[in-house]
Amino acid sequence: MAEEIIRLVNIAKEFHGVQVLDHINLQIFRNEFVTLLGPSGCGKTTTLRIIGGFESPSSGDLLFEGERINEVPSFKRRVNTVFQNYALFPHLNVFENIAFGLRISKLNNKQIARKVTEALELVNLRGYEKRGIHSLSGGQQQRVAIARAVVNEPEVLLLDEPLAALDLKLRKEMQIELKNIQKRLGITFIFVTHDQEEALTMSDTIVVMKDGRIQQIGQPIDIYNEPKNMFVADFIGASTILPGRFIQDFHVFFADRAFDCVDKGFAPQEEVDVVIRPEDVKLVAPEDGMLQGVVTSVVFKGVHYEMLVESGDIVWKVHSTLMEPVGSNVGMVILPNDIHVMKKVAS
Amino acid sequence: MKRNWMAYPYFFWMLLFTIVPLLMVLYFSFTASVNGDGRFSFANFQRVLDPLYLNVIWRSVRLAFISTVICLVLGYPVAMLLAQSQASRQFTLIVLFVIPMWMNFLARTYAWMTLLERNGLINTFLGWFGLGPYNLLHTEFAVVLGMIYNFLPFMVLPIYTVLNKMDPALTEASYDLGATPIRTFFRVTLPLSLPGVLSGISMVFMPAVTTFVIPQLLGGGQFTMIGNLIEQQFLRSNDWGFGSALSIILMLLILLSMRIMSHYDRDRGEGGGFF
Ligand SMILES: Nc1ncnc2c1ncn2[C@@H]1O[C@H](COP(=O)(O)OP(=O)(O)OP(=O)(O)O)[C@@H](O)[C@H]1O
Ligand SMILES: [Mg+2]
Fold first, then answer.
1. E-strand spans in chain B?
2. What number is the ipTM of this complex?
3. What CATH number does the domain located at A4-230 have?
4. What is the distance between the terminal CA atoms of chain B, rounded to a whole angstrom?
5. What's the pTM value of the predicted model, to 2 decimals?
6. Percent of chain A with pLDDT over 90
7. CB contact (8 A) between residue B179 and residue A79
């Protein structure tokens, strides 16, 4: 997966003097599944619109296979989009919506019928060919939008929160289906979501964004285990984040005591943030714990229990398959490997 | 089901000013006066078949049709420009466009008379280039021009309204799927604006086919249209029967043209048109 297909070089975008994208640099490889992840308003859609050609960057270059395409109009780009609000054609039925791109590329009717049928099968909508767009539910419309883009087998597919309107079950199914499509057709996916779980399970690469800046680019596992700053850690999972002080390499002070850790390279006495994932806090008998506390709440989350443990003035989030009742005294153990020390960011 | 008593005033209004006059027109049109008393008769309608009058009806339809087509060809691009201009500028542009409509209809038409005269502004201007003078006033050209000038806003506004409401994401989706701007226009923009086009056509065709002031002033009375004929029957010849028959023919003509148009609008799911 070494061949670059799209590159954003110092892309910036302003709307009426407001900086919406702040010098984005991003390299995307052929057949890669890249996810833009970030809170609402961070510039995900704007980034996609620049790649799709619906918005031109205020500065910076957009490269497609190494060539600058800033000025290439959208109808000439080898890119298709699943729009955030679907943008289906209300005057055409489901079949004609999906066939729109195929008709433009002058396929004959037989080929069109075959491809549209395949695409409908893909999104589980066989038999809906003649239906009008307005007679479909939000989720069905979303799936038609996916079919309309996928059917053209573009080199790059831009998907702007394409699963947002689906219920959990259908959403999971479509996640698997989309991933299959991507692998089978060898399409590069640039996928937008603000659901971190979706990003973690589907992507080859995750790009975490905030306020028009890229916070971190990496594989899901790296983003999850080694978040670069507190924002990423907070956004990617429900971790406990604590203020701390670096003592020296492999030693850090937080929660009123010193811990061994695996981090180095910070200055002695430097103020840092410490991230602990809820599943990395082990509950033990009070006398065996590094920290002691009282369980204040228990919620069953399907596979595990999520418990809040109060210790001093810190509330720890703990995930465990074993339940400790509310009010019980517990001890907590955190291994050096599970302590993530991060540079403090002004937020 | 409970009857809504709030609707009664409207019902009486309709009865008084729509149903009753309509019945009166029907009555007069089927009545011929024989020795002072009315009798049921088709005579009024038979008179309409006279080539003289058929010619007038044909001219009305033809001139109204030409004006409507030209209004559409001129008005659609204007509506598009309006809808695409910046929201802050749109209001000003529309007001500028509509201001002439606030002026009295007669005043506007008289203004055109002075412009088109043999020694009017246009001929003077053409004279500077050694052209003319031409007979512009009292021609079919002048009549059509007057209709276009007066009715163009009725074409532009409904089309503008539809285009303005259209989701810009739809044209983007079309570009995204590889359609050039021209294809996008014919495959997305135009079909989606059809309800506006259809109501524009009716709003221009109806006043155009019934007008009597424009052919009188700009046509100099030489190009009698059905509206003039009706006016003559009621105000000069005092032949209410024949006037009513003509009115009914005119109504049928309009209904027929609406019917033809709603036929074109039929297989579309979206309403928003006139019918
Ligand atoms: N056409 C525009 N004019 C002015 N501001 C805009 C425009 N488009 C986007 N913005 C602003 O740019 C910022 C980023 O918008 P964008 O749509 O890219 O966010 P997003 O990450 O896709 O959010 P969401 O998850 O809510 O879809 C927002 O603050 C938005 O208000
Ligand atoms: Mg968005």
1. 31-34, 37-40
2. 0.79
3. 3.40.50.300
4. 27
5. 0.80
6. 55
7. no
